């Protein structure tokens, strides 16, 4: 089977190694330069343990992180690691066409995807394929080229987030305010990050109280984050956002399949998007192994295995299933953001 993987992030790279271990030689296309990534902490959940263990990466990177909720005699439910340590470990010895993008799909007369047009520093060329695998993110260009339906759902709240280069006292903490909003933090050996839900007020209003107010609020509502948030030096290290959830009704069309964030994207409370994406890669690689000459059969098997796993997470994402919804209950004293004048 001639396979093209569109997207060489963590999920695409993992899929590439899993397929190579099963005797395939996929072509991996990644638009970013080799080694380029945004430095940040990464919460590797238990859903991603098996695929990374199979390709020999889990044991290598585990000591580089901090365990989340470790329990005696059992693996921790997650580990927080600097993302580059994971990506670089997966990418080692894996052929990737960096600085190239898929700019078009080649289709047969009956509409089947039979190739891709890629563009890089030396221009454009066409690659024939039996199966194109889109794992190029929530706003997947490949998915759009294929004309596949995608449903975005804006969360009822905005978010305030920060990241510093100082580890906090614990690896993970999260709490809820009286109006149902949440506040959390992650910490890895090289830094910390925090996030909280707030009313949708826009970036200007969200950041107007200033850095000192952010620090005071965070350490009061979530004391575990103290060291990390106190290390912030500028309000520019704090960001406002308005997250969206993503679901796609169908995960495949003849000749092309969606996995990872191209197929589904969860809210910040769930914290499982990447782990679920790694599980997608594991399942698809095995489906292809079992149907090496029939990409449609492989996709049907893949969907049959993964839908019972992924669809319940989509349906029960906290962003969709809050007991207290935004605006229903006022924030308690000192909990709201921006703070009252």
Overview of the molecule:
The chain is an alpha+beta fold and 341 residues long. The protein folds into 2 domains: 3-65 and 83-151 and 245-315, FAD/NAD(P)-binding domain (3-Layer(bba) Sandwich), CATH 3.50.50; 158-241. Helix content is 28%, strand content 28%. The protein has 10 helices and 20 strands. It has helices at 10-21, 49-54, 58-61, 83-91, 141-145, 203-207, 211-221, 226-230, 273-290, 295-315, and strands spanning 3-6, 27-30, 41-45, 66-68, 78-82, 97-98, 101-107, 113-120, 123-128, 131-134, 151-154, 158-164, 172-176, 182-188, 191-198, 238-241, 244-247, 252-253, 256-258, 264-265. Strands 6-2-1-10-19-18 form a 6-stranded mixed beta sheet, with helices on one face. A 5-stranded antiparallel beta sheet has the order 13-14-15-12-16. The chain has a 3-stranded antiparallel beta sheet with strand order 3-5-4. The longest helix has 21 residues, at 295-315. It is globular.
Major beta sheet, strand line-up: 6-2-1-10-19-18
Classify the secondary structure makeup into a structural class. alpha+beta
Biggest beta sheet summary: 6 strands, mixed
The CATH architecture of the largest domain would be 3-Layer(bba) Sandwich
- The CATH superfamily of the largest domain is FAD/NAD(P)-binding domain
Percent of residues in β-strands: 25-35%
| CATH class label of the largest domain | Alpha Beta
* CATH topology (fold) name of the largest domain: FAD/NAD(P)-binding domain
Could you estimate the helical fraction of the residues in percent?
25-40%
Q: What is the gist of this entry?
A:
This protein is an alpha+beta fold and 341 residues long.
């Amino acid at each position: 089977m001639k396979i093209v993987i569109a997207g060489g992030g963590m999920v695409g790279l993992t899929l590439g190694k899993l397929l190579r271990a099963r005797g395939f030689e996929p072509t991996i296309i990644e638009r970013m330069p080799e080694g380029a990534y945004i430095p940040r902490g990464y919460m590797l959940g238990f859903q991603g343990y098996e695929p990374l263990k199979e390709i020999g990466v889990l044991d290598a990177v585990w000591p580089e992180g901090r365990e989340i909720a470790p329990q005696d005699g059992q693996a921790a439910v997650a580990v927080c690691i600097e993302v580059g340590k994971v990506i670089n470990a997966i990418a080692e010895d894996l052929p990737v066409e960096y600085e190239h993008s898929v700019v078009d799909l080649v289709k047969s007369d009956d509409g089947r995807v039979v190739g891709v047009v890629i563009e890089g520093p030396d221009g454009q060329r066409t690659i024939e394929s039996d199966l194109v695998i889109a794992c190029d993110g929530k706003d997947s260009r490949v998915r759009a080229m294929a004309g596949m339906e995608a449903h975005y759902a804006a969360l009822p709240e905005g978010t305030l987030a920060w990241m510093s280069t100082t580890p906090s006292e614990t690896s993970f903490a999260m709490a809820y305010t009286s109006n149902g909003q949440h506040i959390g933090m992650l910490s890895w050996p090289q830094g910390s990050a925090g996030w909280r839900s707030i009313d949708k007020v826009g970036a200007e209003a969200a950041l107007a109280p200033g850095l000192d107010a952010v620090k005071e609020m965070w350490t009061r509502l979530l004391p575990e984050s103290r060291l990390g948030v106190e290390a912030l030096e500028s309000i520019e290290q704090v960001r406002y956002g308005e997250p969206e959830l993503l679901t796609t009704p169908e995960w495949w069309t003849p000749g092309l399949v969606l996995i990872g964030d191209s197929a589904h994207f969860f809210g910040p409370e769930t914290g499982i998007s990447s782990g679920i994406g790694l599980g997608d890669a594991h399942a698809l690689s095995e489906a292809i192994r079992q149907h090496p000459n029939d990409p449609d059969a492989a996709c049907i098997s893949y969907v049959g295995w993964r839908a019972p796993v992924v669809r319940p997470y989509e349906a029960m994402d906290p962003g969709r299933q809050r007991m207290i919804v935004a605006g229903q209950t006022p924030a308690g004293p000192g909990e709201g953001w921006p703070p009252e004048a």
